[in-house]
Amino acid sequence: MLKSRYSPLESLKIMGHAPNQVMGPNIELLLWNVFKCKKKGWLEDFKSLSSDKDLILLQEAILNSPYDVDFKKSLQHQWMMARSFKNVKTNIETGVKTGSTVAAQQHYFSVSKPSEPLSQTKKMLLATVYPLPTLGQSLLVVNSHIINFVSFDKFSTHLNQVFHMLENHDGPILLAGDFNTWNGKRLRYFNQLARSFSLNEVRMDRKPRINHLFQHLDHIYFRGLEVVNAHVHTNIHSSDHYPISLSLHTLNPVAIK
Around Cβ 126, how many Cβ atoms within 10 Å? Predict the structure, then answer.
């Protein structure tokens, strides 16, 4: 059975070094589900895409692989990886990973309450908080991979967990990840929750994929920030998801209100 291949794991690994003291006012972001780094050319594409980024949000990231050294020895980013399960045969751990040029002031991680069928694995969220140039202001970043192959009730339960992370933060927010919104009901519920937190979705030109049922699974929502530019890298094929680059600008407190 598939579930015998995996063991549950809920833990956090911190690697690398963040050189900067505050995030912004200009923020360059990369969002990418890296498909467990299985495809040829992944590392070369990743290095090219991430070299100028202030924030990097990865889903299906891995640990205990030959790629670890690039994260452990990084002098450009602090890396936090929230792991949800381990392959008992290879010892490779899977989860979400957030890289930042600024050390996180706070962090929180949590696995989904429901499990996916067959494999009995769970999905992970990682919330990190970074200081902004305006004294007393901070940016909340929530990197999420939402559970798949389950009923709508279980999907909504996990999505509620994610949005619960936003409840006590008054400042700017970035909510991004692979939300597995492959049907209208899931997407409508997602958008309903986003509106209740005054979040706007980043609009971008897309290229639907047949393996995603021609729906968009990766989303970025924001509050208290200005979107300058968004780009989907449809020329990159080293994952089953296209990477997304985003340029943002922080707002002063008056503008946020």
Answer: 27
Task: Confirm if 93 and 62 have CB atoms less than 8 A apart.
Answer: yes
Residue 214 CB-density burial (10 A; 0-12 exposed, 13-18 middle, 19+ buried): exposed
Phi, psi angle pair for 152, to nearest 5°: -60, -35
pTM recorded for the entire structure: 0.94
Q: Helix, strand, coil: what percent of the chain each, to 5?
A: 20, 40, 40
* DSSP-assigned states of every residue in 80-109: EEEEEEEETTT--EEEEEEEESB--SEEEE
What is the DSSP annotation of 10-76? EEEEEEE---BSS--SEEEEEEEE-GGG-STTHHHHHHHHHTT-SEEEEEEEEESSTTHHHHHT-SS
What pLDDT, in 10s, does the model give residues 106-132? 999 999 999 999 889 999 999 999 999
- What angle do the packed helices 184-196 and 152-164 form, to 10 degrees? 20
- Tell which residue, 172, 173, 104, has the closest CA to residue 144: 173
- H-helix segments, 101-196: 152-164, 184-196
